[in-house]
Amino acid sequence: MSKIVPLPRPTLPEKDRSDRSAQIRQAALKLFNEKGFSATRLEDVAEEAGVSKGTIYLYFENKEDLFFAIIRGVVPEILDQREQAESHTGSKATLLKSLIIQVGYKMVNTEAGACVKLIAAEARNFPEIAEYHDIHIARPCMTMFKSIIDEGIAAKEFRPCDSAALSSLIILPLLMSGIWKNGLPVMENMDLDKIAAAHADQFVRGILLSSDKID
């Protein structure tokens, strides 16, 4: 009698696995924001993503692991901004204005804003996720802005000021724009990109030593 040898389990190419994982995360983020984390079942996520519930377990251990994966996915976007800041050699005022606008855009037009809204809603239930966001996203972003302000002060572009306090003053309205966009329907009628641009312009002009040093 011949021995039955089980066929090897088929595996998806790496790109397909990455695409499927992103598809599941996007579906989960949408539902977590709409229904709340506790009220969302993995069956709901599977239906929204167009996959079976079993498929989710090929990528994530459970719903909490999926939640963490969503938040971790935002980190590369912040790192992109830090790399841009570190490689910039021109005007600190121009750089600061550009980065404020870019972060504002991401809060309104990418998953970053939805993640911030979700973290704000679930922080008490998942303090470790709020801590992760603080350590890996919010704090590095504020440190980036603080460094630019300090460098601008040293270069005589900016007036002496409390760069730590002002870095918080930059980021808090941007975080709120993400929460508003994903939690308040009335904000759909507001141009939050223009608001971010106005925030950037007014902020930078407020710390300049000379008004002719900004584009």
Q: Quick recap of the structure?
A:
The protein is mostly helical and 215 residues long. It is 71% helix and 0% strand.
Overview of this protein structure:
With 215 residues, this protein is mostly helical. The chain has two domains: 14-67, Orthogonal Bundle (Arc Repressor Mutant, subunit A), CATH 1.10.10.60; 73-213, Tetracycline Repressor, domain 2. The chain is built from ten helices and no strands. Helix 8 crosses helix 9 (163-183). The longest helix has 28 residues, at 127-154. The N and C termini lie far apart (82 Å). The relative contact order is 0.12. Mean pLDDT is 87; it is low at 1-10.
Number of DSSP helical runs: 10
Specify the CATH homologous superfamily of the largest domain: Tetracycline Repressor, domain 2
Residue share in helix: over 70%
| Radius of gyration, in angstroms, nearest whole number | 21 Å
Task: Identify low-pLDDT runs.
Answer: 1-10
Q: What's the CATH architecture name of the largest domain? A: Orthogonal Bundle
Number of strands: 0
CATH topology of the largest domain: Tetracycline Repressor, domain 2
> Which descriptor suits the 3D outline?
elongated
Overall mean pLDDT score? 87
Summarize the main sheet: none
Order of helices and strands: HHHHHHHHHH
CATH class of the largest domain: Mainly Alpha
Structural class category: mainly alpha
Terminal CA distance reads 82 Å
What is the domain total for the residues?
2
DSSP strand (E) fraction? under 5%
